[in-house]
Structures are given as C-alpha cells and as structure tokens.
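A reminder before we start the practical. When you read a complex entry, don't treat the lines as separate problems. The point of joint prediction is that each chain is placed relative to the others, so the output describes one connected object in space. Small molecules and nucleic acid strands, if listed, are placed in the same frame. In the example below there are two entries. Take a minute to note the order of the lines before looking further.
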Amino acid sequence: MQPALVDKLRGIVGGAHVLTGVECSPHALDGRAPEAVAFPGSKEEVSALLALAAEEAIPVTPWGGGTKMAIGAPPSRLGLVLGLKRLTRVVEHEPADLTATVECGITLAALQSELGKRGQWMSLDPAHPERATLGGILASNASGPRRHLYGTARDVLIGITVVAADGAIVRGGGKVVKNVAGYDLPKLYVGSFGTLGVLVEATLKLRPRPEADRLAIARFDRIKEAGQAVRALMASDLIPSALELVDGETLRALELGEGCAVVIGVDGIREQVDWQCAEIGRLLGPLGLKDSVVLDGEARDAAWRGLGELGRAGVDDTAAVMKWGVLPTVLPEVMEAGSAAAQRSGLVARITAHAGVGVARAVLAGGSADTNAVVATLTDWRAMINGAAGHALLEWAPLAVKERVAVWDTPGPALRIMKGIKERLDPRGILNPGRFVGSI
Amino acid sequence: MEALLGPGSVLSDPEELLVYESDGLVLFRALADFVVFPTTAEQVSALVKLASREGIPFVARGAGTGLSGGCLPAEGGLVISLMRMNRVLEVDYENQIAIVEPGLVNLHLSWAVGPQGFYYAPDPSSQQACTIGGNIATNSGGPHTLKYGVTANHVLGLEVVLPDGELLWLGGKTRDAQGYDLVGVFVGSEGTFGIATKIAVRILKKPQAVRTILAVFDQIDQASESVSAIIARGLIPAAMEMIDAITIQAVNDAFSCGYPPDAAAALLIELDGLAAGIDEQVGRVVQACRDCGAREVRMARDEAERQLLWKGRKSAFGAMGRLTPAYMVMDGVIPRTKLPYVLRRVNEIVAAHGLRVANVFHAGDGNLHPLVLYDPRVPGEEGRVVTAGAEILKVCAEVGGSISGEHGIGLEKVDYMPFIFSEADLACMHRVKEAFNPTGLCNPGKIFPTRKACVEVGPAYRPHPIEEKGLAQRF
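Here is the predicted structure of the whole assembly.
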C-alpha cells in the first residue's frame, strides 16, 4: 500500500492501530496477506475508513475473531482488513426488557459474562467463544447445539447498525422484540459475510439463564440406532435445548468411548431438567441404548467445548471441514455414507450433526492426507448431499484443495436477486469481494 | 386474463370491486380495475407477467384482515386474490415441516396437523380468518409470539412469483441455505417483493401442559409493573396480554367472558411446556402479580374456561362494536419497562383530543394496541383520531420503540417512517426493494411515500350502489 494511503489510515484510527507489511501476516487468507490492517475504535472511524476505501477503490474485508475467515473463495486481492476487536462496549443492557445493544467486536465469552452478571444470556453458542466476536457470529451465521431450541442469529438479532459501502451509517430493525416497520434488514446482514456492510452494533433478544443445565450422552452401537433415538426424542414430549448426533470417529477422538452417540442438552427449572433426564433413559432404553451418562458443571462445559472445537481448521490432522444442510431424517444415512466415502479414499471422517434441524459438520482427517484423496471425498460428499436436496459448504480446506473444490454450491436462480442487492448496496464492489456465493 | 384463468375468475363490475376496496382499516379505500382469482402458482406467474408487460400495478390479497391498508390497490390495477389457493400441500411430521398455499387460513393449518399432536405457532388474533400468505406479507405476530417468535421465525422457504413473473424458490426445507437470507427479508416486505405461492413452515409439537392465569388489578400501572416483575423472575410465559376496563366492558357485554367488570385492568397470562415444573412456574407468576398489587389471581379451571378467557382477548376488536360505531387501532411497540409511562401518555393524548381509548394488547412484548374510539358521522372526529394516532406513535418512537409491531406500515404509516428511520436507513431499504421490484409495479404506494397514490381517505360511510338503486337498506 502506498505510504500516503497508510498515513491516511493512521490519521483516522491512530498510528498504533494500523498494521502494514509483515505485521499483516496473521490476517492472511488462503496464503495472501492483506495490504494493511486497521483497527477502528468507533463506528465513526469505520465510516471514515470505508469512505476512504470507496474513494481509493480498495477492497475491504471485515475481521472479528478470525474463526470463520476461511469461509469463502480465495480472494483475488486482499486490500484493507478491518479489525473490529476494539469495538467491545455493551452500549445498553436493560434486563427487564430482555434486550441488549452491543458493539460487534465484543467476544462471545465477554458478552455472555457481562450479561450473566444480570442473570441473562444470549442464546447463541458457536464454538471458540473466547475468540469469536458478535459481529463475526452474525456475519457468518454461526450457531451451536442450542439452536435446536433457541434458533440462530436471525432469531435473536432485532436491530443492527451497519456501516455501508460508502461510509453511511445505516440502522435496521430497532430495540424492541417485535417490530415490522420497514424491511427486516437485520435478516439480510445475518450470514452476509461482510459483503453488504460492516456490522458495528447489534441489538439482541436475551433469555434468562436457566437454573439447571445438563447434558446427557446416550451411546449406541450404530448410527442407525442413534438416528432412531433422535426420532423418538423428536416425537416425544421432551423439550431438549440441544440434540446432537455424534458418529463413532468423533466419539473416539473425544475419548468418550466406542460406538456413536446422541448428545442431549436439557435446561430450565430444576424439576423440568430432572424429569427430562429420567425420561431420556426411559425412552431410549428399548431402542438399543448401550449406556448413558448425565453431565453437569465443568464436565458438561468441557463436553460441549470438545464437540464444538473438534477438527479445528488447520490444526491436528484436519484435512477439510464441510457443513451440510439436509432434512433431519436423512442425517443417519448421509453420515454413514459420508464415512464410507472417506474410508474408500483412505481418510477418516468425523461427523457431528444438529440432529433436530439437519445441519451437520463433517471433518475430513488423515495423517498425511493426499490432495487427490481429499478432493475426491469432498466431491463425493457434495454430490451425495446435493442429491439429497441438501447443501454443502466447504468451510475450511488448504488452498490446493479450494482451487479444485468450490467453496459454495452452484447457486440457484435466486442468485440474480442476491446480485441485485449486492450491486445496489455496494456498487463499487469493495466489500469482501469475490468470496461469497456466486462470486458476489 | 379470463383466457389465463378460466371463466368466473375475473371481477370487473364496479359493484363487485367495491368489496375489495378496503382491508380491516376502513379509513383507507382504493378501487381495483380487476380482482382476479388464480388457483395455481403458474397462473399467478402468468398474471404478473401480463401486468408487468402492460405496465399495470398489481397487489396480492388474502383475507383482507390487514390493518394498515397494505393490500389496497393504491394506484389501481390488479388485485390478485389468493383465496382459491388454500390447500395444505404436504405435511412431513418427522421433519416437522408443512408446505401450504398462501390462501390457507392460519387456524386451518393448526386444525390440519392437530390430530397428529402438532400446531402452527404464530397466532394473530384474526387467525380464524387471516391467511398464511397475508401473515408472510406483514410478518404477523400474535399473543404467543412472546415465547415462540413471529412469522419470520417459523418460515423456512417460499416459492415466490417475483415482480417480473419469474417463479422460483427462496430457501427451502433445509436450514442455513447459502447466500443472503432472502426468505428473511421477504417475510414482512408487505407484498412489495413479489407474491408467495408456496410456503414451507415449521410446525411444532403441542405442549404437554398449558396453564392460563387471570390477574385482576385496580390500577393499570400495577398490571404494567407485573409484566416486568414476571420477566425479572426469569420466566418467559407463552403469552402475557393486557385488557383494560373499557375492553373488559365490551367483551363481557358481547361474550360473557367472566372478566371482572369493575377492574381497571386484567392480565391474561399463559404458561406452557412440560407438565413437570409448570405449577412451580404458575406459583412464581401468581406471586409476582400479588407483589405488584393484584386484587385477584386465578387460574382457568378447565379448557372451557381457558377458551372463554381467550375468546374475550382474541375477539376484543370485534366486541368494540358494543361501545362505538368505529375505532382506529394503533400498533406501536415499546420496551416493556416503559409500559406505565407510555400508557399514561396514551390516555392523556387521547383525552386531549376529546376521544376515548380502549387498550388491549400484547403486554409481554410491549406491543400496544390502543383502540381510539370515534364516530365517523361526527364531523372532524376522524381527523382528530388520525392526529392522536400520530402523537401516540411519536411517543413510542421517543422511548426507543417502533411504529408497528405486527400490522405493517401499509398505506397508513408511510409518513411516520421518519419517526424511527433516518434518510440513510430508508435509502438502504429502498435499494433492497429495487433489487426485487425495479419497476415498482408490485404493490406500489406502500411503506415508502410515493408519487401517485389515488387513495381515498375519509368517512367510511357512503351508499352502496345497491342501496342507491333501492335494492337494499342499511340499518
């Protein structure tokens, strides 16, 4: 980046908050380092940075905790990375309204700890809470096991402040839990991966912290039996907050024993939780249950953490990570077939699923995974999932694999509307360009 | 159009068109040139292509129960009624998804899946008449949205006819579809993004247990404070509805609902979920209400009593006919902690205009429905109602709320959008609209102020042509 431009960046955010040259390498994507990184301290600074970027036609990539930055096609040019970790204020938290307005750079852990002081929480639980930021969670539509009962970002976000591509500060939604005035812009920004604007402030719907919260692990010999257990639970009166299907390789990697498992979260008032835990055993006993264990406190948290963080991008023996969305009832089948496909290529698959909503995470692993084998398996997986009317997203893979396997599925006819929105909200195409669905 | 739809599917007789000149907000009226009744998505697509080619504005209409003039043909043209597309197309109980047509009456979906132990959660008070397609347009709420969320939280996918006539799916049966959440923005777009022709929704298991509580108060502030006190105890009831003295009078007169006639306000609170622990939750709710000064707190003894209490609430708008020839219902939303202050302000504003107000609303989520009572035959009263309404919405905006919680902006509130949105906010919304509806022919004149709306605003009464001909008499 030209020194004059770097000076302008420094002029906006202060010299200490701009990185250049080799300092930028932690913010590299697919092997490409950005030209500069700036860390704005307010939405006004974000606005000034975007106005500058628009004027100079520099691509801008917003960056929270970096946990989801691998999602997207390799960038053809990585211009200015906008680090949002300084925007961490809780602007307003009114417990009696069950709402909070928060700056988007706050980490999930910090946010939950702040809300917890008043006995509340925000019901999203994606992995890596110490690193994941609120803005990143919203922009990538990240979710965790409790989406089973509490939904995803689209269900908790009621208001959003965004800095648009030209630097304008735009608000959508509001501060109240029910609101139909104007278009539901918050929904548009959820899962938009920084391509429509930079999320700077969000108003969220909160929940009271449950007084009891437990996790049950029910083990079965085969995924088919575990799948039947899931159906039985779905058809029962139980109201679990999480319902996960965990395959054998995952269970082994987590050192939770052999076989596969259904992991069930239950929370609420104590009497409800006690009843549900007892009912789980009663319901699943006749369905081939090997054994079950109920965890609470630290052990419960550790189990959830382990499940969420398994197969972290680029560490251990992970070769690729794919996210699948299918009908819940086809999960056992695609999990079994997915494992078999990996085995055929000499690889190992670790697959877990949010069983009630049909969203799975498939980690492909293998000591010295050969690129051809990884590409072949991912291609099989996508064909299998698309064939089941589902969608497959390559969440992480080395560049050599991404060059041969598309990150996103082939988009349907609605792409033209998506492109229309993108062109109107970002006419110069400076917001995280080229990485989203259909090269948006 | 008759060639496209077959005979008996196109209305053009001015007397027949009159039936479609209003929705539930009779203050606004606009006549269509044609009302058409397609039966398939392909017919809707063909009609929209025709309208688009001819440059004729068009708007979809369900049951016409809307309360903001959203389905009125503001610039004339076509009204596309979806009432003949009213089937439940598919129910997948294992995956808990139903696919329905837009003209299906909301309650009929719960009836269809009820025998298997399921229901459709969003329950607008008009659910006996309103359609799911209309619910999509306004992102309808209802009493039970406090716990279960609004329409948008229950819609997974939509088959839509875009404003240029193309038929395609947004989202589908699977979660987390790739790309922008077009389903999310389509829901609540008030018919300006196109016409939904198939709707994939979540259906929920009926809860194991339900408890309905009536708390009676001598002061309206005590009822407002109870709402916050219940939330502060870590409870999210399924519903928390407030009914004030005037409303109690109306519903008791109309339905003998058994609300205490001398109370200043009553709260109708419903808890549902697991049977285990539900009575403990009831105990906490009762205690919270007592701590806030409730005179009486009792639980519905059986399903019949529960239904009667709910009938009073859900039929309250209709019961107002006992008290007033007409009313205008507002739909402001406020943070629930501001309830006592805003209710006082509402009463002051309405009194200052020499009018009366009844309050019946979703207290749990702060969604107010002041019903300003008036007589359209009294010159000038209607104008004062509209002025009072605007002042009420301004108060809602000032305390950090919104000008609409579930009825939509429609024609009614286009001028109030700047109460809560800046020019930049509105410009952003308008750009999104252009991506879907570049010609503006799809439901013009709504949400944003526009160019050439030919809407009539004024006294609702005027003689029907058949009255003029002496064939009918109004009494």
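Discuss with your neighbour: Chain B has 16 helices and 20 strands. What might explain this?
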